[in-house]
Amino acid sequence: xxxxxxxxxxxxxxxxxxxxxxxxxxxxxxxxxxxxxxxxxxxxxxxxxxxxxxxxxxxxxxxxxxxxxxxxxxxxxxxxxxxxxxxxxxxxxxxxxxxxxxxxxxxxxxxxxxxxxxxxxxxxxxxxxxxxxxxxxxxxxxxxxxxxxxxxxxxxxxxxxxxxxxxxxxxxxxxxxxxxxxxxxxxxxxxxxxxxxxxxxxxxxxxxxxxxxxxxxxxxxxxxxxxxxxxxxxxxxxxxxxxxxxxxxxxxxx
Length: 254
Fold this sequence. Notes:
Layout: E1 3-12, E2 15-25, E3 30-34, H1 41-48, E4 56-61, E5 64-65, H2 71-77, E6 78-81, H3 93-98, H4 113-125, H5 141-154, E7 159-163, H6 171-182, E8 187-191, H7 195-201, E9 204-209, E10 212-217, H8 219-222, H9 225-232, E11 235-240, E12 247-252
Helix pairs in contact: 4-5
Family: Belongs to the ABC transporter superfamily.
Domain ABC transporter: 3-235
GO molecular function: ATP binding; ATP hydrolysis activity
């Protein structure tokens, strides 16, 4: 399903965090959400999955206004991978991934073959099947992130939101995770800091600054030297990569 954000605003008290944002993500495409710290990226993701309530505007999944969906229906549609998530409960890696199946089962319903298959496939896709029986608390930060992505995949969502999913990951797993996300074939919005990774793996980009969209479109349209200077405050040289064919940013030191 597509995601449509129409003139959405959100405020915390008197402070406006998201201000009149309008964006559309086509079905099966990946939108990279960029912007400096405090630009509203995380807040916008939370508005889409209704962890925050919009002050004005409408968010739709396909033709459905999220305000009209029950919590259960929304949980079956959309998965959210946050930057940080922790628990003191003693859970194995498989236990954590199995939580992704909760929206598809009744409160007391036992796990079925379909649930088990979804869990094992999700573990395989993030290369964590060998750690399935290991306690989640014993994992590194990057390994925990991969497990949370596996949990979201086990959920079998129509829409997937990810807030800085490459945080704590080494270079190999950054590339592996974003390559995986780009090939899922489901509608994704992923907040990123790395402009080069965004250019490599996202179908389109949107740049937020102080809660407003200041640039949106194809990566080659958005990632200009002028935009990078204005929004991120750094000088950069942008050119097409001879390796992957996407735009590549080289930062210029003064």
